[in-house]
Amino acid sequence: MKPYQFTWNDTGDGQAEPLDEASWDRTRRKTLEAEPGGSGSLRLVGEDPGVDDLLVDYRGLSPVPLPWPERKDDVCVLYLRLPTEYLEERGPEHVHSLARELAAELPFSSGYVDFVLCSSSLHAVPALELVRPRYPGVHLTSSGATMYVGIRVEGVHWMNFLGQPVLGELGGVSSLRERLALPGISLQEMSGDRVLITLGAQPEVGEVEADRRLAPYRALARVLEPVLYQRKSMFGRRVPEELLRWDRRFLE
Asked: Which pTM does this prediction carry?
């Protein structure tokens, strides 16, 4: 199997340095011992800085509120990306186990694991055209962490992690078990009043010929609808109607 490791450390000033022992030490101190007023953000990348390689992108919330109303609901975000080859080589069971282990150590209101197509906001509509005709199971997302989703839930996915307050808004684990007692859907309680909802044995791209396999996604979408994130205009830029419709594809 191909070895996967982080190679570069994005220092946040437009530069990247090799992720050697000295860089690791600076990164730990910057993240764990952030100075007052600092956010403790970090970004680590693999050998290839493109969108198909390893990435850790953490955005910590600044103690100084941002002046823009569009960003009033910002939260801390951890974005982890694995290349598709990692899933192919190690299998969905390994990825599922790895995600559970990581999530067990993290405080979260929501999170997910899924097939994604990464794109900048400027290229989101052209990227959507690549998947919309045939692959409704693919999630279209940014190529890094976005803080403005807030405490809403960003779509329906293969693995769906729910914590407070969204879990409470949905009636808790017992309510979800009752409403999601369907084939292809499993619920696993986690410590700290959290739950993992898994749809099927592996992530589904949702090829149109196998659309029936997306039935659990539609069922979960109906349950999560009250807490789903809805894209909103940012700094005067309107959200294209195509993206809004795509976000609701499991509800139509």
From this structure: 0.90
